[in-house]
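Methods — Computational structure assignment.
A single polypeptide chain was analysed. Its primary sequence is given first, followed by the predicted tertiary structure written as structure tokens.
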Amino acid sequence: MNSYTTNHNEYTNESSVTTESQVFYMPSIKIYTYPDAKMPTVSTQGSGGLDLFVYDYKVEDHQTTVFTGAHVEIPLGHVGLVIPRSSTGTKGFRLKNTVGVIDADYRGEIRLVCDRFENEEDVVEVGVKIAQLVILPVCPFPVEQVSSLEDLSETERGANGFGSTGL
């Protein structure tokens, strides 16, 4: 089993993660929660994201809005993806836009807008884990507009999509 240690430098606001063979430097993520909201947490050493908890929710005709009570400061060069937990997905929970995108410059409360579903009261309950916030680096590519489709390089796949690469 791999083990690691984490160290935080308060002057640079960076953390280092040391494994048996490598050291990774990463900026910290700042999180503010309302006083009675649960702090997003990493459940296990191998977790891919922070668990988000239901702080409150509002049921409307065609959607349910879930409030987490959490605000984050995602480091520049990164993006946060809000993804339903697998356990809530198996119960019918589905985000309206499939995956929520939290940009590095957003400081508002993390909210989830969900489709209404049959047993939502069994899934959307104050204080329970509802989704994960996964933080990923992004690479800001320069954009070059071309004048025709032929200016794009050819590939073996071409324009074939929706299952064209097989199962």
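Note: The two ends are 32 Å apart (CA to CA).
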